[in-house]
What we know:
By secondary structure, this protein is of the alpha+beta class.
Amino acid sequence: MDNTKPRTNPIMLIIYIFLLLASGTIIAQGNQPRLAGPSEKKVYHEPGANGSPGQNYLINPAGKPLSETGPVRDSKPGYTLCPYWLIAVSASLFLIVVMCFIFLLLLIRNLKTAADKRNSEVTVINEELIKEIQERRRTEERNRALLSAIPDMMFLQNRDGTFLDYHARDDSAFYTLPEQFLGKTPRDIMPEELAKKNMETIEQVRKTEQIHIHEYALKLRDESRYYEARLVPCENENVLAIVRDVTEDRLREEELRKAKEAAEAASKAKSEFLSRMTHEFRTPMNIITGMTYLVSQSGLTSKQLDYMGNIQSASDTLLAIVEDILDFSRIETGDMKINSVNFYLDRILENLCEKMGRKAEEKGLEMRFDIDKTIPFSLVGDPACLGKIFTHLTDNAIKFTKAGEIVIKAGAYEADTPDRIRLKLSVSDTGIGIPPEKFSDLFDPFTQADGSSTREFGGTGLGLALCKKLADMMGGRIWADSTLAKGSTFYFTATFGRSPGKTRNSPLSSCISGHQKQEELSAFTDSFPDISPDILKTELNEMSLLLEEGDAEASEHIDILKQYLKNSGLDDQIEQLGNQINHYDFEDARKTLENIMGQLSVLSGQ
């Protein structure tokens, strides 16, 4: 709004000033006293009666008095007034009246102009106010529409918790009717514990000036309802409580929780069933392999030995699958533990060469080793788990490679402390490679990079999943790089302790067949010239059969195991095996013996 006052035209102002000056000059000139000439200087004295002083009169040369009205007092001799003073005063007054009239006209015109301008401004302002009022009404209507669509209840409370106002689509959703809670505090209408919680939350909101949320339950119409209250700070230290009924959400969460528990229970039952069934599969397989070995040592013909060899090979393959399933189920149920024993890394690699070298040789593949000589080969850890990872990765490499080579590498990696060392190990091939889109589920159980590979190459899809879990259990991880038609490399890391024992620095450079350097592969048995590996294997097989039958005579083989394996780092497990047999705990004894046999197969290279 323009608040400027009416202004006078500058030209008219100049005219006003000129007229004022002119009128002033005329008045001044009309009242200006003049000197009278010598002929005009006449004074008539009229003596007073009875001796009074009398009066003086000014007279003109004709002898007539200058004033008809009476004597002139206090007139200075020699001066007289202008005879046109009345005309001057009248003219001045007329000019003043004219100027006032003109000024009044100009003022009225300026006031009218200002009033018109002000009216136009007021009209514009009124139009804007009307638009603003209309927009506010539309906004209020939208807000009311939005507010009515909100399913939540709202309560305005002051700092003392008194309910000042509310909003709800349906008053039946309230714990009490509005007329029963407006003007009252939570302590007046709510249970004590809930009222206390509400007041504590209001205090927190006031202190922090932030939103606070709390959940509570109320029994409404004989039904338990769950609510979520979101308290928001407002002006004047008030608090706005936005209350939502979350009963349906809580019921769904409870159903999901029960479903999750049921699924976990079913998964655990499945794993336990799988573990039991796998154990039941392995029991007859151990008997088959054990009896096959014993029969093979009973003096058979060459044809019979060939038959027994085929039975032994098929049994070993089936037993390996059963063991993978059993190991996987044990890991799933948390029954599998990582052992900590002294072992030599080169013996793990020699055993790998012994078991996989023949497969590679049959396919015309070269199997090479690239081992960092600075690695202390005397380590503390679980050689059986390490050997299983190497075996699975190498077996896959041979399986999916038609020509070229298999390279096994080992080197120190990352953490290297006086008592711990982290190794980075890998198995590379020049095989068919893995498609990039298959990397995401490469280590998932029961999957393979290509479903058709199962028919061509065989396998259960458990190997890589088992390797991943074993690597995790040994404090490492596993990953892969691959290029189609060029080959793949599988890397894994593991953490081991440093063994105080003697370090052997004679890593393999290339794989050798099992009979070319038997003296190197049987280095572990050099300390026991009187007991051959065949005798030990026979003892272990017979002991396994006795435990399967629940026969306590299995304890008779403990002394031979102690004598043969006294420097293997398995003394504690052998002692545990003897105690389990003596207490007729044949189930745990079988598991302990299986663990010993698994570690022994890695340590001995057999």
